[in-house]
Specification:
12 helices, alpha/beta
Length: 324
């Protein structure tokens, strides 16, 4: 069996059409997840069943499709070529044959799939899960972190019911703002630079900063970077870079560093980490977390219900937001 041999030009589209409809869904899950176990969870199928489906697909396409490299899997060149064609075929089938019946949360056993930024998880995971349990006791919610690589976000958007992520990073899909917050400056409570609870622009310029890199790649500028540039401190010293926003407060605990984090996150860790919120002359940076979803799910009754529920949860969050 070939592991790399591409089919003749134009042949992959015809071979996709020849795949059994059920196998097409398996193929779509495998190509998007790039992992047999994750694809099985997505399809709610056992490992042996997914292995059997992969075997039949390999026979059909005369290609390995998924190749193990160390602990991960990679798509073969043919599988990479198949990905957009399979996604288009599944989207077309869902549009033509999709379930347009009303969604009844009282009787449904749907398993919702969401991805969120880590910060959004800290704010939404508990109240959203509780709201789903109360309104749709037979349903469940799977919440996973967003991919860090910008070029994987589109695939994540396609396979999730909803993705919750900040505006301003060029994410695609349809958008519904969920909740807002603003950035505050965190420092250790005994930081010697802190005078009467405030930091000057000069102090912010010379102090070491800790920052979180939200995405590994992408053509974007963070709102904080724009504010720093406008204040003339774009060249401030960034001493620590972390991959998770949630670890930033821990990085500055007991140090002379400062960091800008969302207000809700800051208020959760002030006492436990002995931190303080410092007033600064920087223009307040507003952030908005929004729900993103693929166009093909726009008329899905279940996803529409989930968006409305998320909006109700967000209203309660805004009412309970810290005042500072």
């Amino acid at each position: 069996m070939s592991s790399v041999g591409p089919s003749p030009a134009g042949g992959t589209r015809e071979r996709v059409r020849d795949v059994d409809a059920n196998l097409l869904l398996f193929l779509h899950a495998l190509l998007e997840e790039r992992n047999l176990t994750h694809a099985g969870i997505r399809m709610q199928m056992s490992q042996p069943a997914m292995s059997g489906a992969l075997g039949r697909l390999r026979t059909h396409f005369d290609d390995e499709l998924l190749v193990r490299t160390g602990r991960d899997f990679q798509l073969t060149p043919l599988a990479e070529d198949l990905r957009p064609k399979v996604a288009a075929a599944v989207a077309a089938a869902e549009t033509l044959l999709g379930d347009h019946s009303e969604f009844d949360p009282a009787t449904s056993d749907k398993r919702f799939s969401l991805s969120m930024s880590e910060y959004a998880m800290t704010v939404l995971a508990e109240p959203l899960s509780r709201a789903v349990r109360e309104a749709a006791p037979g349903c469940s919610v799977v919440i996973e972190p967003m991919p860090r690589a910008h070029d994987l976000v589109e695939a994540d958007l396609m396979r999730r019911d909803l993705m919750v992520a900040p505006l301003g990073f060029g994410f695609g899909g349809l958008v519904q703002p969920i909740f807002t917050d603003h950035l505050v400056c965190l420092v250790a409570r005994d930081n010697p630079e802190l005078v009467d609870g405030a930091l000057t622009l000069e102090q912010l310029h010379r102090m070491p900063h800790a920052v979180a890199e939200f995405l590994a790649a992408g053509d974007y500028r963070r709102p904080l970077e724009k504010a720093a540039e406008a204040a003339g401190i774009a060249d401030r010293l960034v001493a620590v870079r972390v991959t998770s926003l949630l670890t930033v407060p821990f990085a500055i605990k007991g140090t002379h560093m400062c960091a800008f984090v969302p207000s809700r996150l800051a208020h959760r860790v002030l006492e436990s980490l002995d931190l303080a919120i410092a007033r600064t002359p920087l223009t307040q940076v507003q952030i908005t977390e929004a729900a993103h979803w693929h166009q093909r799910r726009d008329n899905d009754p279940a996803v529409t219900w989930l968006r409305h529920l998320l909006y109700d949860v967000a209203i309660e969050l805004e009412d309970a937001a810290p005042s500072q």
